[in-house]
Amino acid sequence: MIWDVDLSVRAWLGHYLPPGVPVVFDPPDRCAQLDGELVSAFLADVEEDSSGVSATWDELRDAGGQLVGRRPPGRRYRFGYLLTAFAADTEREHRLLGDLLVGCASCTALPARFLTGTLAAANQPVVVRGAPRRDGSTGPGWPAGAARTGLHLQLLVPFVPEAETDLAPPPREVSVNSGGRPDGPRPGRRPGRGITEPG
């Protein structure tokens, strides 16, 4: 799942960057040793976001209304990326960060064409929060003493569990037995009921 998020982020951010500027996932201190222009999208933290998450299982039915599976409640995770740009001078780095900020401000969710793997299969929005306000719930801040401008990116990523389809089949036949006595059932005894399970 994490790699699917990474690939989606790379494709999306790359859309706003000049051609030839790669998006890598190495931490900033390692990227400083590399040559050429690049953007680091360092995944700093992943946390579960339980707000608005249902505890109810979903029932899956076929076209005829027959129950064919049950799906556990979905979950949502908060991915926190620290974005930094590396170039020959600070002005160029700020230009690259500005391109990324434009991308964050241009959409409330990752466009579907950039989603891959489990994110595409989930068919649910991946919410984008670019440079969110620091309220204690938006992931870690920039490392203390860092002498480089950075942009914090937060994504709310849905996770849809696999459905359980190994369900017990319904009874093939339900019969009601009156007891077979001509004078009716014995006092104090209810008529018997029988359920025939599939063989």
Automatic annotation (TrEMBL):
<dbReference type="Pfam" id="PF14065">
    <property type="entry name" value="Pvc16_N"/>
</dbReference>
<feature type="domain" description="Pvc16 N-terminal">
    <location>
        <begin position="5"/>
        <end position="131"/>
    </location>
</feature>
<protein>
    <recommendedName>
        <fullName>Pvc16 N-terminal domain-containing protein</fullName>
    </recommendedName>
</protein>
<dbReference type="InterPro" id="IPR025351">
    <property type="entry name" value="Pvc16_N"/>
</dbReference>
<feature type="region of interest" description="Disordered">
    <location>
        <begin position="162"/>
        <end position="199"/>
    </location>
</feature>
